[in-house]
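Weekly structure sync, notes
Attendees: PL (lead), two postdocs, one rotation student
Agenda item 3: pending single-chain targets
PL asked that the sequence for the first pending target be pasted directly into the notes so everyone works from the same version. It is reproduced below exactly as submitted, 384 residues in total.
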Amino acid sequence: MVNQNTDKPTNRNYFLGGIWNYFCKYLNCINEKTGEDPGHFLLTKAGNSLIDRKGLEKHRFSFIKDYYNTILEMRWHWAILVFLSSHAITFIAFAVIWWLNSYIHGDFNSNDSNSKPCLPDLETFADFFLFSVETQTTIGYGFMYPSTDCAGTIPTLFFQVLIGFILEAISLGFVFAKLVRPKNRSNTVMFSCKACMCCENGHPVLQIQVADLRHTHLINAKVGGMLVAEYVTLEGFVHPLYQVKVDFEINNVGSNVFLMWPVILTHYITDASPFFCLNREDLLVKKIELLVWINGVIESTGEMCQVKTSYIAEEIVWGYRFAHANQFDKKNGHWNVDFKRFGELVPCPMSRSSNFSDGDMTMIGVSSETKEEAEVVQTVADIH
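Predicted structure, written out during the meeting:
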């Protein structure tokens, strides 16, 4: 006896799957990658994912069931195309239904002058299509109107108006949700294009500059980071994307970010840091990517927002620090922020030793005991 394959797709699955593949595989309408940065393998500088997802053939109906979020994640032109198509399909479908009502009622072949047609003065399919558009959009010019003498008039009118209201509500909700997406707020929060390796108070540090362009800033914002690289365990098992926590702080306030002016995120390179045993040459050889993000609440809407970016080894410069973008204006007694100097680098003294673990200078080899919150983790020196 041959067992039947219950996973064999039906014609319905082929049809829906073909539509899904058309939009997502060929048109790439969802999570479309724009402005990819060379060398980045996880995130672009703008925070867009670079990870390709394959083998989703068996899971495509999960996206269809979650149709609202699927449409929200579409690019604007594809989403507008979907809504225009849905309205056009309903217009045509109900135009056919109205034509069938008139045909069944005998309006096209009736010679009885006393018989009142379902839709007076409608003869061609273009007339029925125009009436369908007027009914669903509730325009009602008054020249075309339905007759209650036809049995199918009231149910057809009821269902078309109901479906029209539902489509309009979904369209309005989509446009509103698309315009107020928290993701759009990330466009006004900037990260520096480069990360700096320098020394501060005799301690080796990694620094990143961040600024908010708006006067209303993110509330309760916190910064986080991690270093991603390949890692091989003692048993020889390879983790291709091993994550190591990277703690950032701003001056002496911890990980809380107050973005009233451009600030510098600082990571102290202690023996608990994944950068502790990396030297300048290692940064150019190892395939690593530093991910940095800020989570906060949008003041105007109260929604959670995340801003993220990434840095590869080539974008971590050695022996530089960020220039001051804040200047005090003595004339008006206010601080000014010059965004033209945002991300500008200036050289600074740095140890000639490229290995932070050498400890041959006072600025090298800082102990983790100087940072109470530091934890002993596996360093990237063990990552191959």
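Discussion points:
- Residues 131 and 144 are 7 Å apart (CA to CA).
- The domain at 185-347 is CATH 2.60.40.1400 (Immunoglobulin-like).
Action: rotation student to compare against the earlier draft before next sync.
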